[in-house]
Amino acid sequence: MNTMRPDVEFSMPFEENIPETTFDPDVMQRVVANIFLNASKYSPADETVQVSADMGENNFVRISITDKGPGVPKEYHEKILRNSDRFN
User: Fold this and answer.
1) What are the contacts of 36-41 at 24+ separation with CB within 8 A?
2) How far apart are CA 32 and CA 85, in angstroms?
3) Where exactly are the structural domains of the chain?
4) Cα 85 to chain center, whole Å?
5) How many angstroms separate the CA atoms of 49 and 46, rounded?
6) What global pTM score does this model have?
7) If exposure means fewest CB atoms within 10 Å of the residue's CB, which of 19, 28, 39, 55 is most exposed?
8) Could you give the CA distance from residue 83 to residue 30 in angstroms, rounded to a whole number?
């Protein structure tokens, strides 16, 4: 079962100048849920996960996640955004 751990806190300071953005809601829901669940699963107890959004280069909205987890192993970096791959 995928649940958030109660001993990991999330902080979400978003910049005020982020424009309204169009995206596929199903895809975005999966992406955000996976990010939050992974951050919750792999962060040490009593840590805060920082989730922020700001305007990146070329008018793209950049979403950043900072946590104290072990990170994604280098061998998965190229596969990380593929829809069909899943990592344990």
Assistant:
1) 36/4, 36/10, 37/2, 37/4, 38/69, 39/8, 39/10, 39/65, 39/67, 39/69, 40/4, 40/5, 40/8, 41/5
2) 16
3) 9-70
4) 17
5) 10
6) 0.62
7) 19
8) 10
Q: In sequence order, what DSSP letters do the residues of 42-64 get, joined into one string?
A: HSPTT-EEEEEEEE-GGG-EEEE
Q: What is the token pair recorded at 47?
A: 């840590």
Amino acid at 4: M
Number of H helices, E strands in the chain: 1, 3
Domain spanning 9-70 has what CATH number? 3.30.565.10
